[in-house]
Amino acid sequence: MGNPLGSHSGVHKMGCVYYTIAGLPPEYLSSLDNIFTAYLFHSDDRGNKFSNDQIFSSLVKEIIDLQENGVTINIRFERYNWLFCISCFSANHYCRICRLYKDDTKKMCHESELSIRNVQNYESDLAVHNVSYTGINEPCIFNKIPNFHVTENIVCDFMHDIPEGVARYDMALIISGLIEQNYFSLAELNKRILLFNYGVTEKKNTPPLIRDSDIKKGCIIMSASETLCLARYFSLIVGELVPYDSIYWKLYLTLHKIIDLCCATKIQRDSDVLLNSLVSEHNRLFLVLSKSNLKPKYHLMAHYGRILKKNGPIILTSSIRFEAKHKVLKAIANAIPCRINLGYTLAYKLQLQMVARFLSNLSLNVQDLKLGLGKDVHTYAEFPHDLVDKLPEEFKTDCLSFAWLEYKGIYYRKHILLVLENNLDGLIFGEVVFIFVGKSQIPFFLFKPVYTVGFDNHFHAFEVVIDNSNSINYSKLTGCYVNEFYDITPTVPRVLGNSKTYATIRYAL
Ligand SMILES: [Zn+2]
Q: Is the distance from CB of 145 to CB of 63 less than 8 angstroms?
């Protein structure tokens, strides 16, 4: 907080504890409004003036109270008592999940079941009082919370582990390997990165050009969302230039599959087994290609299968949005010139904002629906009868048609693709041709069918055939409400150098 270049820089460094409510629907979880501040403290106080125990004791007291007594909420004149259960994480040592020695983790591609930390070995490690030997410095203060133990409530941080860790090293290794084998040059790669069609969902995350110096250093420097975007679309950007049997490509595809699984908001049975085997294959390939050791973040990835099984979707516990929340606090701090008891001022302002939100009775997302310019459509007169029969009641007379709209923070427009179905043959996409909104305020989409040829492993994308003619065969249109989609994230068709069209999804479905 304050001027980072001034003589007092660092004096007002604040630590924050944020929390989210895991039971909220996933589409609301990433909104900054639904990430709440639980605790603020001066970073300098922690460790120097006060112990962790003293700093966090009142937070722990609050959490225990929430768990044992809960809060009472009135809904339509009925009183409900809500009890909470808490999961969070704390880290002091490089691997907080297992007791492996640093040197062992350098070559080990998979998790070692025997070395996993548990309550018993945690207690006996504590009794040793030797942090360099056991990795445990002091008892975790949060263990005082009933039903919580730091060895049982394990959480990973996807953002720091993969987009800001493994993926950065991997992509540098893969790009330098492919350039060395003369499949393309750095200039050509940068030209393709610049000209790639990122589409509506990824426009904000367009990766910057890759510098030669980064490749030589073995780590590309870009933001977490840019690295994710590069890793997701690299197969389409240069896929047709690389032969099917390239070992560097194999490493890339494994990384891509790991990211897909970690970003999934819904998981299927045995996803954890798949993730474990992908990570051990990935780490094996990295050892072979880099001829160096596994870095700590590669080792942490070996525990991802266990965490996925225990906690559910990994992306929902990522700190990627918590970091974005810092800007809210910074904005408040920058608006106030006074620095006396800054933590109190920030907490007071945040509480006022919360009260304003409660009093105005706003829903989870302030505005679910944002609309572009609408056009009146007389469906009964403009569309054939058999199509009108298929429409919901609210669209059978007049309604408004839109070229674009935003629903629950996701932007939709005509001609994007959405996943309509997932069957044994793969995904079935539909191309949006009409977007209607009626009285219910829930958008309704009409789709032109898209033929899926199949999943192409090399490009890690679905090959599709899109009808580019302007004429619409009304009898073939299908429609559904936005909340009935198989998956809510839109994608765009992309034509590659091999003149085939591909559609990709942002995460595993
Ligand atoms: Zn470990």
A: yes
